[in-house]
Every structure is written in structure tokens, then in C-alpha cells.
């Protein structure tokens, strides 16, 4: 059970060990990973609250990864941001842990505003959330055999595929996320749609890309929280 407070609600990130975490894998995994101060650890800091019957995870409300991407939309800046996601997944794999659902909804980023009131949040840093599908794998990468696929946002590369090496599945999801950010025409947040939005305007200082255009149509500027400036 996880709750996201508003930006006005500060979080101290003190780990209050719940009376009973056994049987709640997500809480157990958060508690374990947040004790490791490895700089490659990109798991979002949360507060584990003591509860009568089950642990409660309290986490800060950060921006979607795309927001930070569009604030720094040069290719080199985007690659540096995406490398943080790769680094976080690599850290998990080095500990024989797989995430299972790397996707746009499970990656957040901290802006200067997001970090206010949250001392352990670093502006410009990318964090991985949602550990419901996280698994500890018996064998390391390159050795582990196929396991049943978890329920995830991305579909398998082959229809009716039900098993895959879990480390390879994480890498596949990373590739799909990268494709969404850089050129997948089904994503309104990709560079393809941003450029289409720029070409569809005439001299505006800001371009807002909101909806996915139909085939043959250009993205239409419309009010949205996702924006990129025209230099």
C-alpha cells in the first residue's frame, strides 16, 4: 500500500520498521534496498510507517521522467538522464534482483521544486518506483534460465510469449522505454512528436504537444504540462 503526499508535505524518510513486513514483498524490498547508499541505487526513498496490520509506504510526489527530459531536451542531456535508469537497473541486476516493469509510469525525476522539503531527493536525479514486480533471482545475469513473465506495461516481443530470462526482460523494457522517448510514433512524448509540434507552429515561444496525431496528421499544439522551448 503506497501513498504519495502533495509537494507541500515534507517527508523525513526515517525507516520505521513495521510490526510485520513478512508477507509484504514490496515493503521488504524497499526496506532492504534503501539501506544501501550505493550511488547507483536509484530506488526512490520512501518512509516505512508502522501500521497495525500492514506496512504503509509514504513516498514524495515527483515529476514524470518526461518532464525533466523536455526541460533538457538536447540529445546529450537526454542520454545522461536515461543512463541513470540504466545504472539503476544495472545496480539491481548486480544484486540478483530484477524490476520486472520498467516503463514510463515507473520512472520519475526530481526537479528543483520537487526536492523542496525532501532532503534525500536530489534535483536532476532519476528514480525508479513501484517494486510490486521486483524479484530476487537465484542465478546471476547470463546464467539464469527463463521464468514466467510478470504483469507489466509493455507486451512481450513475441505474441503468446509467457517466459523469458528476467534480466533480459528488464533490458527489453529499457529498450522499449528508450524507443518511446526517442522515436516511437505512438508516444506523444517522443522527440518525433516534439519536432512535429515545432514544425506546426509559426514563431511561438513555446510548443505544447498533448495528443497523439492520427496517421498523416501533425501534432497540434495544445495546453499541456509537457513543453519545450524554441531556441
TrEMBL record:
One of its GO terms (molecular function) is ATP binding. InterPro entries: Kinase-like_dom_sf, Prot_kinase_dom. It comes from the Eukaryota. PROSITE patterns: PROTEIN_KINASE_DOM (PS50011). Residues 1-231 form the Protein kinase domain. Residues 1-21 are annotated as: Disordered. This is Protein kinase domain-containing protein.
